[in-house]
Design a protein that fits this description.
Length: 561
């Protein structure tokens, strides 16, 4: 740990940052701005002023239940106004909301709940009524918790869990003004787990200070303002990429999909006048297809005014082109649950482009937007490490390695998991498991996940880059390049392809050498990156909307033997 030096004492007020200040600010400065949640009985609408009143009622109710600083409260459900109220209320009294990822496999959910119960006081679980029976199957000891139903739903009598009350009954009658305690800003404001694609999920806590700084950076970097309407596509169990925090902080309208997620995302996008959204590419593919269909019916239809930020995986070029042609503005960012729940390590458009991007022609600028994840946000420090030796590599654009990050909103390790922390630390930096290169302009290009990169004859092949150009073929809907064992080269790439609708495996007319030749000639890819074999199959998707390459690698590992 670097020595911390202290100089002359400052006279700056010692104001502790807290996430509830975000909704407090929204209520005071933007009190008439709307919060929309698509519930099963219709769209619920109220204002930030009304939300803050209920947050204060919820804080009083939690204290009356005996919840106090150092306790965790569980949240098991969807992105709804009630669950967001709980985030602000619990954090405001010093408790920590633990959001269970309901899309994890049952054994992983059980692991997460057990880990939190083992290391913190977890007495109450706030659960959507529709999910009582699911929770009963996944909780390690249902009798160890008390349950508050956030959305009563009939027809769930098969669950043995007996809720103590509903959320509305819980907060009813409490005063709408609450005397907030002073909570230390290093207290965990939120608790969750990674998606566990490489083993059991890893536990993460983020402090109020981290979330505060992260949200301020999002408001500035994304240029979100009171005239925006933001659709929170990432679910709350992925921390909503912090949109529940930075959207109120900016005074923008917040739209949440609620229990109808993800089937209602397109309707919300088009019907609520959304101007800002973010998510992984797979969730926006259908939106682009529907928008193109609408344009065929109405030539004046466009997505003008919509800004979409992609993260989680490099978005396909054809998707970006479709959205841009429809009038949307697209960009990329990079980050994970480790970055305070949102992609705020690097952006390729921070407010606006830099002078060097403005000097690019249209083709160069599109290459930049589609290929470069971004450059570091203020406060972010990056290193590139040789995957085999761990040595630091130069920022020259030609020295790929694993990215390691240090930032005021990046975790330094995993909560109550010292071994997992040690595996992923590089001094004060956290290794993120991504294979990247960084150039002299600080541009980060994400080449692959370290575990997904193909190493052929001692050289690395970045699978997303190859996928990007295979997807340009008119008969290809999606492609996924994976490593297969090879007797001579150690590993060689093969590609799993989902053809476009109406094209069977037999009808697929794709010669990879011929199709990729122009990209090889243009210097976009190397000839030896071309996959050795095409496999036509359905590409499985993880709970975070990404390709499940592990499943495909296990299935096709021996296909070249």
């Amino acid at each position: 740990m670097t020595e911390i030096r202290r100089g002359i004492e400052s006279t700056t007020a010692d104001v502790q940052l807290n996430t509830r200040q975000l909704i407090e600010h929204a209520a005071r400065a933007h009190g008439d701005q709307t919060v929309v949640t698509d519930m099963q009985d219709g769209r619920h609408r109220y204002t930030y002023a009304e939300m803050y009143e209920r947050v204060q009622q919820a804080a009083a109710a939690l204290e009356n239940l005996g919840v106090e600083a150092g306790d965790a409260i569980g949240i098991y459900g969807y992105s709804t106004y009630r669950n967001v109220e709980l985030l602000f209320a619990a954090g405001g009294i010093g408790a920590t909301p633990f959001i269970v990822n309901v899309e994890l496999p049952p054994d992983h959910q059980e692991f997460c709940i057990d880990h939190v119960s083992t290391h913190a006081s977890l007495e109450y679980m706030f659960v959507d009524g529709e999910m009582l029976d699911t929770l009963q199957s996944n909780a390690p000891d249902t009798e160890a918790l008390e349950y508050v139903v956030t959305r009563p739903v009939g027809g769930k009598d098969e669950a043995d869990i007996e809720p103590v009350t509903t959320y509305e009954e819980l907060i009813e009658g409490y005063d709408t003004e609450f005397d907030w305690p002073t909570v230390h800003e290093d207290t965990a404001a939120i608790l969750g787990f990674t998606s566990g694609t490489t083993g059991k999920p890893k536990a993460i806590t983020h402090s109020h200070r981290a979330l505060w700084l992260h949200n301020q950076g999002f408001v500035a970097g994304g240029q979100v303002d009171p005239q925006d309407t933001a659709l929170m596509v990432p679910p709350l169990f992925h921390w909503g990429w912090d949109m529940w925090g930075f959207v109120p902080a900016a005074g923008a309208e917040l739209v949440m999909p609620g229990p109808n997620y993800p089937d209602n995302l397109l309707d919300l996008l088009f019907e609520e006048g959304v101007t800002v959204s973010a998510g992984v590419a797979t969730l926006f593919r259908r939106a682009a297809e529907m928008a193109k269909e609408r344009r065929e019916e109405d030539p004046d239809f466009s997505l003008d005014g919509l800004r979409v930020t992609f993260a989680g995986q490099t978005p396909p070029r054809d998707l970006l082109k479709d959205l841009e042609d429809l009038g949307a503005d697209t960009s990329q960012a990079y980050g994970y649950s480790e970055s305070a729940g949102g992609p705020h390590f690097v952006y390729n458009k921070q407010g606006d482009f830099r002078d060097r991007e403005f000097k690019m022609d249209d083709a160069e600028l599109f290459d930049y937007v589609s290929e470069v994840a971004g450059y570091p946000a203020l406060g972010v420090d990056l290193k590139v490490l040789d995957i085999e030796t761990g040595d630091e590599l130069p920022w020259d654009g030609d020295s790929p390695g694993e990215i390691a990050i240090k930032a005021p909103w990046c975790v330094s390790g995993y909560w109550k998991m010292p071994e997992r922390t040690a595996e992923n630390r590089y001094g004060e930096y956290l290794k993120m498991g991504d294979f990247v290169s960084i150039d002299e302009h600080a541009n980060v290009t994400v080449l692959d996940r370290v575990k997904d990169a193909v190493k052929s004859g001692g050289e690395w092949i970045p699978s997303p880059t190859v996928e990007e150009y295979i997807n340009e073929h008119k008969q290809v809907s999606e492609s996924c390049v994976i490593a297969a064992d090879h007797p001579e080269w150690g590993e060689r790439p093969v590609v799993v392809i989902e053809p476009v609708e109406g094209i069977s495996a037999e009808a697929l007319d794709l010669d990879l050498d011929e199709h990729l030749a122009p990209y090889i000639e243009a210097g976009k890819i190397e000839k030896w990156w071309v996959p050795d074999e095409i496999i036509v199959d359905e590409i499985p998707i993880t709970g975070t909307g990404k390709f499940n390459k592990k499943t495909l690698r296990d299935q096709y590992r021996d296909v070249l033997k």
